[in-house]
Amino acid sequence: AKPHYECALKLFEEMFGPDHPKVAKALNHLALLLHAQGEYVKAKPLHERAVRIRQEKLGPNHPDVAESLNNLAESLLYQGKYDEAKPLFERALRICEEKLG
Known about the structure:
This protein is mostly helical. The protein has helices spanning 2-16, 21-36, 40-58, 63-78, 82-100.
């Protein structure tokens, strides 16, 4: 599955540019796969890039930003970085409560 996600990411970057929300979605999928394989350190920069793209393109309080923040926080949590994960979880929750009720 990993080669397919990497291929999709590359195609989206070529088609839409490196900072398009579709690229963020592809980054998110690849990072989640790495996370599921226990490769949290490798997943982290992908999650961080997805957060950055989504914040810049969709706004800081978009539900997709909350999704990426939550995924990044989970990656940090599994690495034992609780102090880094907590504010990200809290921000994701605030966005969801505000936007989704």
